[in-house]
Amino acid sequence: MSCALRWGLFVMLAACGPGAGNAKYVIINGGTGDDVVKTINTTVGSRYTFGLVQDQVLRGLGADSAYTRRTTLSQGPEVVVYSTTDEDVYLEPTADGQLTWGGSSGVLASAILSIKLPLKQDLEWETYDEKGVAFYRYRVEAVERVDVPAGTFLTARTVQLNLRTSTSVTRWYADEVGLVQRSNSLLLAYELNRSAR
Fold first, then answer.
1. Among 37, 57, 64, 146, which one has the highest count of C-beta atoms within 10 angstroms of its own C-beta?
2. What pTM was estimated for this model as a whole?
3. Per-residue confidence in pLDDT tens, the chain, 197 aa
């Protein structure tokens, strides 16, 4: 069997795994060490406040973000809506992690595996669009403690590289809480709704 055919079968198997929906992705490196982030809170009613950072200085408040409701997309999946000041983002929690279906500015034909759980050191995965063309590569670059105004967290520092534009975004995720820091923002405060679980 040729390398190209084996690679194609591997991508297909990864894309069709339990909970994968119609997301196409491949695990490049399964990671090493302990699981750092096992769950991401997506409970409706959970709220987050981020502050904007410029030149490593907190420059002011961003707006609140919250998981506001559940809805079913025309493609079929039930998603939780993460509302920000810019738009509503459609997220589907799965056994594999978290799929992103786009948002109020446009729903994707094929979901993107934006978080592969559990997150651990050196975990790396790549996502593909509905035509099978590589879109994003994600890599957990480090496991580290971060101090943000909302507290101190053990995090998985994850870099998302857009393979089409060569731009990247770094995010720090903490177990159960979710996103606590991004390239240009810090978590100032949060409130997890645990009663709805």
1. 37
2. 0.84
3. 333 322 332 333 333 333 345 678 999 999 999 999 999 999 999 999 998 887 666 666 667 899 999 999 987 789 999 998 889 999 999 988 999 999 999 988 888 999 999 999 999 999 998 888 899 999 999 999 999 999 999 999 999 999 999 999 999 999 999 999 998 889 999 999 876 54
